[in-house]
Amino acid sequence: MFAPIPTQNFSIYLRYELHGERTDWHNVFYETLSNHQANRFGGNEAIQLAYSNALRFYSSSISEKSTIETDDHSNLYFLILKKIIVNKIRDDKGVVPEKVEVIIGINDKPKNFIHYHYYKLKN
């Protein structure tokens, strides 16, 4: 019935290109969470859980400093997160995005520490 208060908060900022047009940065984790909280029957719970679970595993596998990362396929947890992100865009927009840039923000509450990882995805 009761779950402990999360020790980490996450953000996933995305920017990508569709049909030659560049999108602005937007926080897909926050958007999905807000949509789920606004309408519990809107079908956003599954994607929110997917993001959340993938981010929890990802955060345990990376360094606790802000860095520009290389998508060299060595981090399995990032590969899972990347697949969720790209497939969600494809499902929403009907086309696979190009030139995807991702910033993952991790706010560690007990340590009072925030760090970010930037990725430029390879197509």
Concise summary:
By secondary structure, the protein is an alpha+beta fold. Helices cover 36% and strands 29% of the residues. The protein has helices at 28-38, 45-59, 76-93; strands spanning 8-18, 21-22, 26-27, 67-68, 98-108, 113-120.
Protein traits:
123 residues; 6-stranded mixed beta sheet; single chain; alpha+beta
Describe the structure.
The protein is of the alpha+beta class and 123 residues long. Helix content is 36%, strand content 29%. It has one domain. Strands 1, 2, 3, 4, 5 and 6 form a 6-stranded mixed beta sheet that branches. A hairpin with a 2-residue loop joins strand 1 and strand 2 (21-22). Helix 1 (28-38) packs antiparallel against helix 2 and helix 2 runs antiparallel to helix 3. It is globular, with a radius of gyration of 15 Å. It starts with 7 loop residues before the first strand and ends with a strand. The model has no long low-confidence stretch (mean pLDDT 89).
Count of domain modules? 1
Order of helices and strands: EEEHHEHEE
Total helix count? 3
Radius of gyration, Cα only, in angstroms? 15 Å
The proportion of residues forming helix, as a percent range, comes to: 25-40%
Largest sheet features: 6 strands, mixed
- Multimeric state of these chains? single chain
Into which percentage range does the β-strand content fall? Answer: 25-35%
- Broad shape: globular
End-to-end distance, in Å? 42 Å
Summed over residues and divided by their number, the pLDDT gives a mean of: 89
The total beta strand count reads 6
Structural class: alpha+beta
